[in-house]
Write a structure and sequence with these properties.
alpha+beta; 3 helices
Length: 92
């Protein structure tokens, strides 16, 4: 048996979360759907992690400054965007 797996599920999530072989649930979406997932996960006492809306979650440590945190978030948001060079930007 695989100890860890990742799946993106559209529909059928109730069966997945309710499956006794699933021990932990990571959920990214909105609050209304999260309530349903949390209730179903709670029935099996499953560990659950929710990231509700916005961008990806960030993890910061005690020794980080606010400036470091902001720089990290901004870099993460724009690192995967194109164009990455200001020479390709347009002013409107």
């Amino acid at each position: 048996m695989v100890s860890s797996t990742s799946s993106t599920v559209r529909g059928g999530g109730d069966a997945l979360v309710g499956d006794p072989r699933v021990r932990k649930v990571f959920f990214t979406r909105g609050v209304d759907s999260a309530r349903l997932v949390a209730a179903r996960a709670a029935q099996g006492l499953k560990q659950s992690v929710f990231e509700l809306g916005g961008k990806a979650a960030g993890i910061f440590f005690r020794d980080d400054t606010v400036d470091q945190a902001v720089d990290g978030v901004v870099t993460g948001i724009f690192a995967a965007c194109q164009p990455a060079s200001p020479t390709n930007w347009s002013a409107v």
